[in-house]
Amino acid sequence: AEERGEGAKDMIKEGVLENVEAIFGLHVVHRYPVGVAAARPGEFLAGCGSFKAKISGKGGHAATPQNSIDPILAVSTSVISLQSIVSRETDPLDSQVVSVGMIQGGTAYNVIPDSATIAGTFRTFSKKGFYALRERIQEVIKAQAAVHRCSAEIDISGREHPTIHPTVNDERIYEHVRRISSEIVGEENTMLAPYFMGSEDFAFYLEKVPGSFFVLGIRNEKIGAMYPPHSPYFTIDEDVLPIGAAIHSAFAYSYLSNSTKKAQ
Length: 264
Known about the structure:
With 264 residues, the protein is α+β, with helices and mostly antiparallel strands. The protein folds into 2 domains: 7-46 and 166-263, Aminopeptidase (3-Layer(aba) Sandwich), CATH 3.40.630.10; 48-155, Alpha-Beta Plaits, CATH 3.30.70.360. It has helices at residues 7-13, 71-89, 127-147, 171-185, 202-206, 241-263; strands at 23-33, 37-39, 42-45, 47-56, 60-61, 96-105, 111-112, 115-124, 151-155, 167-169, 190-192, 211-219. The strands form 4 sheets. It has a 4-stranded mixed sheet. It has a 4-stranded antiparallel sheet with strand order 6-8-4-9, covered by helices on one side. Helix 2 runs antiparallel to helix 3 (127-147) and helix 4 packs across helix 6.
């Protein structure tokens, strides 16, 4: 699955794409009502990377901070400074995200710990932006640690949470799927999606084979289907399942039929 970032890679290694001419994938989303299909040609979903930093100082009693080197303070300023990368160093028309999702440090309210850890994710649609973000995240954390007399160990290699590339739809396959979707759910329910900062390891398939990734709406407030995938309240309107199956099968049938006609 995309949560590990390795599913598509493993399947490619197993030869799943051998002799494959085109590929199509769907993901349910709460953004659109049930049965609405949406995507866009070209760049669609962002690529993502992760980082984890352990900032080390010198522990001690919180009543005498002068005898310690406080990693909590270094972590705090690192988190704040990371936000300025996107807000002050990035072109506002070039969508990027840096988010810290985890802070761990200390075991007691009156003790300054020896170390504290932060971890987060960064997202962008371009390789240039990706490598620039990765470099600046390391620079900012190391600099903030040094300001507060601490040291920093940073893992941004993608070993724990593998790097996923941007999802880029092939324009020809996108148009084919858009036409098929409109025939099944109607032109009024086939939409041009915005760019999404979420990531999907389907991107690795698209680097090997022309294809397109679509999203299919599941929103139905009457049954509580209005929460995002990682919410504990997530649920779907199962009426969408045959719609998704129909789009998948119609894509395969029509694409193969067209390929056969061209071959003749």
